[in-house]
């Protein structure tokens, strides 16, 4: 008689235990009707003060949602092949929970210190301004995790990109982990294959990967991220041959050997406008980051780059779909509505370590 593998029962139990509460548009329509207006108003002011802050805030959602993947493997007997096997039983994604925003404490090193974030992520003060305005209007109501999703949407819309309705209702995490962020966030050296595999872990397709990479339509990146491309690609002692020669000369002038590697350059030719110029630049060999240009050199991602470079509407549609899918990466976990996005409720702000 066939015996149902116990591991499947375990998977079912885990899936039920960690099923996240549903998100929906208009979540704050009764508890905080002006919430979305307040977020966009602060984002508009931030844009006037420093246009680059829009791109910086938009990046925060990605760096928040793509953290804390927990794999569990178990040994079980496969009754079809009559032997014990070790296979993944389930994957839990903590996801979009505002963990990125937590400052370090005496007993926690958070995600801001992660390799992909330190000296790179910025504009946390814009999130602080949004939270302060929301606390004045609707105390202890709007989560920091939802603020990140709303602010990212508004950053795109205010830069000339698409606007869309977001689903809300997330809770804020009670902790953060530098290690979790280090273990998952991609490097600017990443190639298309590693990016495809990473996104697949989150049930995001190749199309989602390429479309979401279009977030680099706005903003800048540091010389630190491309020095290897310019002078020692793959340990060759030579530049990346995929870089268009005239563009490489410009990059050499921007980022010569010995430069302060915090100097920044635009990610595409229109860094303040959310459009499909990013993809046109990739087709022309003018991608700033290796992880961007690889999307055109790889046969698996190249078709989408070509389509988006020719059809901005198609890019916008795919980008919105990807943002919605990414924004819903979550599981049920202990959480709260933080009153200060940098600190868990009940912890005095003055015990935080300097950051």
UniProtKB/TrEMBL annotation:
Name the UniProt key words of this record, in alphabetical order.
Calcium, Disulfide bond, Heme, Hydrogen peroxide, Iron, Metal-binding, Oxidoreductase, Peroxidase, Secreted, Signal
The cross-references to CDD domains, in alphabetical order and at most eight, read: secretory_peroxidase
Q: Which GO terms describe its biological process?
A: hydrogen peroxide catabolic process; response to oxidative stress
**One GO molecular function term?**
heme binding
Q: Where is this site: Transition state stabilizer?
A: 59
Domain of life of the organism encoding this protein: Eukaryota
**Where do the annotations place Ca(2+) 2 binding?**
268, 270, 275
* EC identifiers of the protein: 1.11.1.7
Q: Which GO terms describe its cellular component?
A: extracellular region
The cross-references to Pfam families, in alphabetical order and at most eight, read: peroxidase
Coarse class of the protein's main subcellular location: secreted
Signal sequence span is: 1-19
**InterPro entries recorded for this chain?**
Haem_peroxidase, Haem_peroxidase_sf, Peroxidase_pln, Peroxidases_heam-ligand_BS, Secretory_peroxidase
Cofactor(s) the protein needs: heme b; Ca(2+)
Query: What S-S linkages are listed for this chain?
Result: 32-138, 65-96, 144-341, 223-255
What top-tier enzyme class does this entry carry?
Answer: oxidoreductase
The residues the record assigns to binding heme b are 216
Sequence similarity: Belongs to the peroxidase family. Ascorbate peroxidase subfamily. Belongs to the peroxidase family. Classical plant (class III) peroxidase subfamily.
Free-text function comment from the UniProt entry: Removal of H(2)O(2), oxidation of toxic reductants, biosynthesis and degradation of lignin, suberization, auxin catabolism, response to environmental stresses such as wounding, pathogen attack and oxidative stress. These functions might be dependent on each isozyme/isoform in each plant tissue.
Q: What is this protein called?
A: Peroxidase
UniProt organism field: Gossypium aridum (American cotton)
């Amino acid at each position: 008689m066939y015996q149902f593998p116990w591991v499947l029962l375990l998977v079912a139990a885990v899936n039920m235990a960690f099923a996240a509460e549903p998100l929906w548009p208009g979540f704050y329509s009764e508890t905080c009707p002006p919430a979305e207006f307040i977020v966009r108003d602060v984002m508009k002011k931030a844009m006037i003060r420093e246009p680059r802050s829009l791109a910086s805030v938009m990046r925060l959602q990605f760096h928040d949602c793509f953290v804390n993947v927990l794999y569990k493997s178990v040994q079980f007997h496969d009754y079809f092949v009559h032997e014990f096997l070790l296979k993944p039983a389930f994957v839990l994604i903590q996801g979009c929970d505002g963990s990125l925003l937590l400052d370090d404490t005496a007993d926690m090193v958070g995600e801001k210190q992660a390799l992909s974030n330190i000296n790179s992520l910025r504009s946390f003060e814009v999130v602080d301004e949004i939270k302060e305005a929301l606390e004045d209007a609707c105390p202890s109501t709007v989560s920091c995790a939802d603020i990140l999703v709303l602010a990212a949407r508004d950053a795109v819309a205010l830069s000339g990109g698409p606007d869309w309705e977001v689903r809300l209702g997330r809770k804020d995490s009670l902790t953060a982990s530098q290690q979790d962020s280090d273990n998952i966030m991609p490097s600017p050296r990443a190639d298309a294959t590693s990016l495809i595999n990473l996104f697949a872990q989150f049930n995001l397709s190749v199309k989602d990967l390429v479309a979401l990479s279009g977030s680099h339509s706005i903003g800048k990146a540091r010389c630190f991220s491309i020095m290897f491309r310019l002078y020692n690609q793959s340990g060759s002692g030579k530049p990346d041959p995929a870089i268009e020669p005239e563009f490489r000369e410009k990059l050499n002038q921007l980022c010569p050997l010995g430069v302060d590697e915090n100097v920044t350059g635009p990610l595409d030719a229109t860094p303040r406008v959310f459009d499909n110029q990013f993809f046109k630049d990739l087709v022309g060999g003018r991608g700033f980051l290796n992880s961007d240009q690889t999307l055109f050199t790889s046969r698996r991602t190249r078709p989408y780059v070509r389509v988006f470079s020719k059809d901005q509407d198609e890019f916008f549609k795919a980008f919105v779909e990807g943002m919605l899918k990414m924004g819903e990466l979550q599981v049920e976990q202990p959480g709260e509505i933080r009153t200060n996005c940098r600190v868990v409720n009940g912890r005095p702000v003055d015990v935080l370590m300097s950051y």
